[in-house]
Amino acid sequence: MAHGYGTIRITELNHEFTAIGPDSLVFTGDIRGGLEGMHVYKINDFYYLYGTYGGVDGIQVTLRSKNIYGPYEQKVVLEERTPGVNFGVHQGALIETQSGEWWTMLFVDSGPFGRMPNLQPVSWVDGWPMVGLDGKAVVTYRKPNVGKEYPVKDFPRSDEFEGNTLGMQWGWNHNPNPTKWSLTEHSGYLRLKTAKVVADLLEARNTLTQRPFAHYNQAIPSVATTQIDVTKMKNGDIAGLGIFQEAYAFIAVKQVADEKQLVMVNKGDTIASISLKKANSIYLRTTASNKSRLATFEYSYDNQKFDKLGNELRMSFSLKMFTGNKFCLFNYATKEIGGYVDFDWFRVE
């Protein structure tokens, strides 16, 4: 195993992944600080350590030696400085396809939506895996040849909650409590029950999240809308739709005694609160732009006319949470558990 930050060491492991040898220093980064993210390969006569000098302006490098313990020589295989979708592309893995082509999957820090996967072709030149074409990362390119034709498919985003499993795009923010959510108790709906009494969204269990998408030129925002039935909420429950990162914001229904309120919360502060009137179902929407870094929140009683509530969230990409901003569906209790809400669908444009 290769590991380290700035200084790279090799450690021998046994089959149980327990260290059985010392941490042997094999290379000290000399371009700048932050050499990290090493992947180890044995290709032909060389051991390769494929890593990066990290940061928004990352530099992808390869170290190679005929001995796993070095000495290693170093080569920059991609240093992309062109403003745009490839600026600073770095840190990933080398891949050989079934047809013998070589590729690398890297990422780019691309604003509040977080780190975007970035696939680049690789050419072997004098025994070095050179990334992109003519020293530059490609913006558009042919697909890898994997020995078989596959139909074009889009990534899943929307979910009608009609099956017995969630779509692959979803991820729980915490390990979920499986007894407090269901797709079968109310067929065609995602039921989220309150799981424990908490202070705010950061402590809530069973918060369901997915990453938004951005067009590669970033000019088109991502718009998420959901319909939620709030009939069975208990006093103190808060349920709705949010943009989730360390600085989060949401639009939600809050049960206050016998009244339901529609609230907009930004970074923990309640910015706006209005009566939900007598409605038991409400449409909630958020529009998030990776380009402007802003997210807005709206509501509707008929899914036709939407009104804004509260202010804008200025999204940030905090390495304390190490993910981009995500859409989230949630229901949490601040006073007592036992309430639940039903999400009819979640749709992303």
From TrEMBL:
The keyword Hydrolase applies. SUPFAM superfamilies: Arabinanase/levansucrase/invertase, Concanavalin A-like lectins/glucanases. One of its GO terms (molecular function) is hydrolase activity, hydrolyzing O-glycosyl compounds. Keywords: Glycosidase, Hydrolase. Pfam families: GH43_C2, Glyco_hydro_43. Coiled coil: none annotated. GO terms for biological process: carbohydrate metabolic process. Residues 158-349 form the Beta-xylosidase C-terminal Concanavalin A-like domain. InterPro entries: ConA-like_dom_sf (IPR013320), GH43_C2 (IPR041542), Glyco_hydro_43 (IPR006710), Glyco_hydro_beta-prop_sf (IPR023296), Glycosyl_Hydrlase_43 (IPR051795). It comes from the Bacteria. Gene3D superfamilies: 2.60.120.200, Glycosyl hydrolase domain, family 43. PANTHER family: BETA-XYLOSIDASE (PTHR42812), BETA-XYLOSIDASE-RELATED (PTHR42812:SF12). Belongs to the glycosyl hydrolase 43 family. This is Glycosyl hydrolase family 43. It comes from Mangrovibacterium marinum.
